[in-house]
Recover the amino acids of this structure.
């Protein structure tokens, strides 16, 4: 990186380090309850909370969390208001605000937490953070390079996320297409005709233990598991398990309840060798079909459109077992079901590989950016003695 090497050459001479209180004014945020709606962003430690009609300052400024997400340091270059979970700093004329922002990012302020509960930072601690003060020329060149790096990183991340989304869309299209083509001439029948749908009951997260009988909570169907699983992440005691619904190998577990329409009706095939249990807000489908074919079909637009006729609720969406019984499913022969599963498993494996690879690439680029940022912002301290 020639530009970085050029700047590092300018950093050979030691520079003074000063406490933050000597390079910037530090202000406490205030409540925004009295402010009317407007165009000025109101910041909390998590970011913009709303927009108000009055500014605490016209900027630029560096916002440092006082409580909560201490690592979430922010830079603003226009009017803003901060609530009392933030400090805001106004750099003096020998420090560029953006330089101060980038340097504070390297200081891992979250490690200065002084509370046992909600992470907290006092102004006294913040004031003592030592800041290097190179020439304005060096500060401006570092800011220019890091601004470029930040922009490039954001562009790359957007490209990789778009690629990931495109691959996911491609996978969904292929899954829906192969199931549609392979079942086009298949007889359709209600789920009640291909097996027995049994609604679970009981089991809360407080019932979980470190070992015992394997258990799948209904919420895990759409937060933890994909199409099928042969392992669990939760257990209940044998005594609790006796009062819960048994899931046999090959059974389908279907969510009956969710906060949104997309997740309700999510199905996961249990492919483990042992019986496990499930509880309330879940239905078990016992059947003699290919379990993964059924689970894949539950992801298709065919099922999604049908379930909309029976799902009910506003804040909580319900899809009862009695409603599931009416869902019509195309049922090809077991050999065709097996072929569909084989094709979709191959394609899904490629998609999963991509899903892991792209985030890893994003993380690698972010670490590379942090490396060069920290290198640029490392200075020798001037010894006054």
């Amino acid at each position: 990186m020639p530009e970085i090497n050029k700047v590092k050459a300018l950093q050979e001479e030691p520079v003074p380090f000063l406490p933050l209180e000597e390079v910037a004014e530090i202000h406490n945020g205030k409540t925004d309850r009295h402010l009317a709606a407007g165009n000025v962003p109101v910041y909390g430690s998590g970011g913009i909370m709303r927009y108000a009609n009055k500014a605490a300052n016209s900027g630029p400024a560096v916002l440092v969390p006082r409580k909560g997400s201490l690592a979430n340091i922010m830079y603003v270059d226009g009017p803003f208001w901060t609530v009392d979970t933030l400090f805001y700093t106004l750099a003096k004329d020998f420090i560029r605000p953006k330089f101060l922002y980038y340097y504070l990012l390297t200081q891992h302020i979250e490690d200065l937490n002084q509370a046992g509960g909600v992470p907290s930072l006092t102004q006294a601690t913040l004031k003592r953070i030592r800041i290097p003060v190179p020439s304005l020329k060096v500060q401006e060149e570092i800011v220019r390079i890091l601004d470029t790096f930040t922009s490039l990183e954001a562009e790359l991340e957007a490209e990789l996320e778009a690629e990931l989304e495109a691959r996911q869309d491609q996978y969904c299209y292929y899954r829906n297409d192969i199931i549609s083509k392979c079942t086009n001439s298949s007889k359709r029948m209600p789920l009640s005709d291909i097996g027995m749908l049994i609604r679970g009951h009981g089991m809360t997260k407080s019932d979980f233990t470190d070992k015992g009988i394997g258990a799948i909570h209904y919420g895990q169907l759409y937060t933890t598991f994909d199409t099928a699983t042969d392992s669990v992440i939760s257990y209940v005691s044998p005594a609790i398990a006796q009062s819960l619904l048994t899931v046999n190998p090959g059974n389908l577990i279907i969510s009956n309840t969710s906060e949104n329409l997309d997740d309700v009706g999510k199905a996961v095939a249990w492919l483990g060798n042992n019986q496990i249990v499930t509880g309330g807000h879940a239905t078990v489908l016992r059947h003699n079909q290919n379990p993964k074919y059924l689970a894949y079909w539950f992801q298709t637009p065919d099922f999604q459109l049908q379930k909309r006729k029976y799902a009910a609720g506003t804040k909580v969406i319900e899809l009862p077992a009695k409603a599931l019984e009416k869902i019509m499913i195309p049922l090809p022969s077991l050999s065709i079901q097996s072929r569909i599963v084989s094709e979709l498993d191959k394609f899904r494996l490629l998609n999963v590989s991509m899903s892991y690879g792209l985030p890893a690439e994003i993380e690698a680029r972010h670490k590379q950016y942090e490396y060069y940022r920290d290198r640029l912002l490392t200075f020798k301290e001037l010894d006054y003695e």
